[in-house]
Every structure is written in structure tokens, then in C-alpha cells.
UniProtKB/TrEMBL annotation:
The gene is dapA. It comes from Nonomuraea spiralis. Pyruvate binds at residues 45, 204. The lineage of its organism: Bacteria, Bacillati, Actinomycetota, Actinomycetes, Streptosporangiales. This is 4-hydroxy-tetrahydrodipicolinate synthase. It comes from the Bacteria. HAMAP family: DapA (MF_00418).
């Protein structure tokens, strides 16, 4: 279900500060037409915390339409650190949404037993399969391989977006012994190639807004065991991701998309500030000439 590249869409804004719905639609269609297996709406990259409920609904409706036209998976980010309200948000997801990306409860640090109880309750409540978003440097909560494996046994938990900031012992342990039907997708752009080499099935990668086809090719090459293609391509794309994340995500990516005429402004909402011109031009240059 989670195989391939899933692009967590940025939210483009007009020059008067509204969500640019036509640009969302165009960008969403382009990502899928370039080979992405699916889209993620309302991820961190979408600046979801800065969108009001009507804007969130607009983004979801637009993505539902684009994904339905192309029979692609739409995953929607549903974030909260309270089980009851997160369950309610899951129950309210509209038709056409295929999965929900749910962050490990952040800031509270409920412990791994709390994390298990949280996701089991959500999995029971959710009308769609869950993808756990494990990103300890943002949530502050450790989750080991044994906990993820236990959660992976639940029939309504499809996988984990794995973003631990590197390859560690838990990464090796988890990918060495995955429950049936439970998939790992890379969520740390710069580490996706080694994760794919270890058996991840794809990635949810903001970097895939740029060079979408190359990220798709990277997944395909690792899945086919074509190391001669995958290894150098992975190194090249890691350099691109490094440049795209030189300043807080998604500021540089929005700058590059705007420079390429794909979104009407590079604008982000506070507390994010626009990327510097130097970071944007460097990332654009590295995407075209990865040796730079
Ligand atoms: O929104 C997402 O999904 C992603 N967020 C990560 C982040 O901002 O740290 C990056 C990843 O590429 C996808």
C-alpha cells in the first residue's frame, strides 16, 4: 500500500496570503503524473499548524479530486497529542482519503506503553489505515523497534514513516523483522537511500517535489536490486535533499518551486520565514548539477 514515493504537498499561497487552490491542484497533478504513487495532504511540509479548518478542508478536497482522477493513494496528516481529539479527527476524514499519517504524541512524552495505547485506540477508531509518523527529534518521544513491531501487528496500522535522523540499531532491528503487511517508508530525505537498501518500501519526502522522477527511479532501482543504479542516484539525491533542507522545511522547497514557476509565491506563514535567496539558488543549482 505504501510502496513508492508519496509527496507531502506544500501549501502554496497567493500574493494576498490565501491558499492558492489552483496551484495545489496543478502541483498535485504534476507530482502524480511524474510517477509519485500518492500524495500526503496536511503534513509538516504543508505548514498544517498555520492553516485554519476551512483551508485544511480546501486542501483535502482538492487532493481527493486529483488522486481520484489518477487512482492514487491520498494520505492525510492527522496530528494531535490527545487520543480523544485525534480519534475524533480521524472519524471526520472525508471519503476519498486512503490513509492517515498520525504523529507519535509530541511534547507530552507519554512513554512507549502510552504510545502503544494511543495508536491501538486510534486504529480501532479510524475508518482508514494508519501510518505512524515517528520523528523523535520533533516529538521528543523515543519509540523502539519492539514497540513499532507490536503496533505493526494491528490490522489497521499499515506502516511507519520513519524519520529518526539516521540509521540506528532500532532501524536495523525493525527492518530485519517486519510484521506481515507492515511497511516502513523513509521520512528523512537524506537517509532514504540507505533505508531503501535495508528494505523500506518507499518514502514520504518533501524533496520529491523537485526531481520527482529521480526519487521514483531510486525506489524502483532498490526494489529491483539494481545497486549499480541505486547507489550513485541515492548519493546524488542526498546532496539535493541536503540543499533543500539547508533552512527550515518547506521554505527552500517553496523558493525553488516558485523560481520554477510552479507556485505563485514562495511565501510561508509565521513562525517560518522565507528562505534566503542564497539557499534557494544553491538548492536549484544542486538539483540541476548535483556535483555543485
Ligand atoms: O510533511 C512531511 O511529511 C515531511 N516532513 C518532514 C519535515 O518537515 O521534517 C520532511 C519530510 O520530507 C516530509
Amino acid at each position: 500500500m505504501l510502496r513508492g514515493i508519496h509527496v507531502p504537498l506544500v501549501t502554496p499561497f497567493t500574493s494576498s496570503g490565501e491558499v492558492a487552490a489552483d496551484a495545489v491542484e496543478k502541483l498535485a497533478g504534476q507530482m502524480l503524473d511524474e510517477g509519485a504513487a500518492g500524495l500526503v495532504a496536511l503534513g509538516t511540509t504543508a505548514e498544517v499548524a498555520a492553516l485554519d479548518p476551512a483551508e485544511r478542508a480546501l486542501v483535502i478536497d482538492t487532493c481527493v479530486r486529483v488522486c481520484a482522477e489518477r487512482e492514487a493513494l491520498l494520505t492525510v496528516g492527522v496530528t494531535g497529542n490527545d487520543t480523544r481529539t485525534t480519534a475524533a479527527a480521524l472519524r471526520e476524514l472525508p471519503g476519498g482519503v486512503g490513509a492517515a499519517l498520525v504523529t507519535v504524541p509530541y511534547f507530552l512524552r507519554p512513554g512507549e506503553r502510552g504510545v502503544i495505547a494511543h495508536f491501538e485506540a486510534l486504529a480501532e477508531a479510524s475508518p482508514v489505515p494508519l501510518v505512524i509518523y515517528h520523528i523523535p527529534y520533533r516529538t521528543g518521544q523515543a519509540v523502539g523497534a519492539a514497540t513499532l513491531r507490536a503496533l505493526g501487528e494491528h490490522p489497521n496500522i499499515a506502516g511507519v514513516k520513519y524519520a529518526v535522523g539516521g540509521i540506528d540499531q532500532d532501524t536495523i532491528d525493525l527492518l530485519g523483522d517486519l510484521p506481515d503487511g507492515f511497511e516502513v517508508v523513509g521520512g528523512d530525505d537524506a537517509f532514504v537511500s540507505p533505508l531503501l537498501a535495508l528494505g523500506a518500501s518507499g518514502g514520504i519526502l518533501a524533496s520529491a517535489h523537485v526531481l520527482t522522477r529521480s526519487f521514483v527511479e531510486l525506489v524502483d532501482a532498490w526494489q529491483a536490486g539494481d545497486v549499480a543504479t541505486a547507489r550513485p542516484l541515492g548519493h546524488r539525491l542526498a546532496r539535493v535533499s541536503h540543499a533543500l533542507f539547508a533552512e527550515p522545511n518547506p521554505t527552500v522547497i517553496k523558493g525553488v518551486l516558485h523560481a520554477r514557476g510552479l507556485i505563485p509565491t514562495p511565501d510561508v506563514r509565521l513562525p517560518l520565514l522565507p528562505a534566503s535567496a542564497a539557499a534557494v539558488s544553491q538548492a536549484d543549482l544542486v538539483a540541476v548539477h548535483p556535483g555543485q
